[in-house]
Amino acid sequence: MKVLWFAWLRTRVGTGEETIALPDGVTDVGGLLDFLAQRSPGHAEALKNRNVVRVAVNQTYVKPDHAITDGDEVAIFPPVTGG
Amino acid sequence: MAVRVQREDFDIGAELDALTRGRHDIGAVTSFVGLVRDIAGDSKIGAMTLEHYPGMTEKELARVEAEANARWQLSATLIVHRFGRLEPGDRIVLCAAASPHREQAFEACHFLIDWLKTSAPFWKLEDTDNGPQWVAAKDSDDAAAARWNNSR
Questions:
Q1: How far apart are CA B3 and CA B144, in angstroms?
Q2: Is residue B152's pLDDT more than 70?
Q3: Is the pLDDT of residue B138 over 80?
Q4: Are B116 and B68 in contact (CB under 8 A)?
Q5: Is domain B2-146 given the CATH code 3.90.1170.40 in the classification?
């Protein structure tokens, strides 16, 4: 699975892109965020406040209960500020 | 209908001309242009860098544009959004809507910018006196986008 990080979440995590194997028992976006938060102190810091974390699976916004599979591209980012 | 995400500047006159040329069904074209300010709160801004999510950005802009075309009777629409390093005074974004009559074009253009601000994956990093700062999302932008949920 490809995990992408953007903006200040990227700087906290220390990379913009990771390839991970989806662990057994992780079936949805909420579970994935819990798993990712344990990968490093930077990950934990980035995911500390879930209210300011947006998630897109295969480039479409999703909610925490959205089901995921190993082939998905999951992007994690703060609220957007374009325009 | 067209959306473009690009590093380069755009020519407003040329874009609006291309949108409406030869289209004699169009009676009104409205546009919104967003510019880089040199002030954010109490801080002076030297420049900013716009980060985006290639692929999803185009997809979200196309979704916003399609929604506008579903809600209003439009003859043509355009969104051009820049990324990369921008300085105060630089153009960031152009939204345009063309219609037989002005009311539809005005409303649709307003909708385009309100919705893209809260959905298109762009993030602004400003160079301030206190170093680089990520711009925080504004509640007022959410409210501006949300009021379109109650109309039409």
A1: 22
A2: no
A3: yes
A4: no
A5: yes
pLDDT at A31 over 80: yes
SS (H, E, C) B117-149: HHHCCEEEEEEECCEEEECCCCHHHHHHHHHHH
Q: How many domains are contained in chain A?
A: 1
* Residues from chain B contacting residue A60 (CB–CB below 8 Å): 56, 59
Kindly state whether A30 is in contact with chain B, defined as any CB-CB distance less than 8 angstroms.
no
Torsion of Cα atoms, B137 then B141 then B145 then B146, to 10°? 90
Residue A11 domain-assigned?
Answer: yes
Identify the pLDDT of residue B40: 77
CA nearest A59 in B: which residue? B56
Closest by CA to B2, choosing from B71, B97, B92, B73, is B97
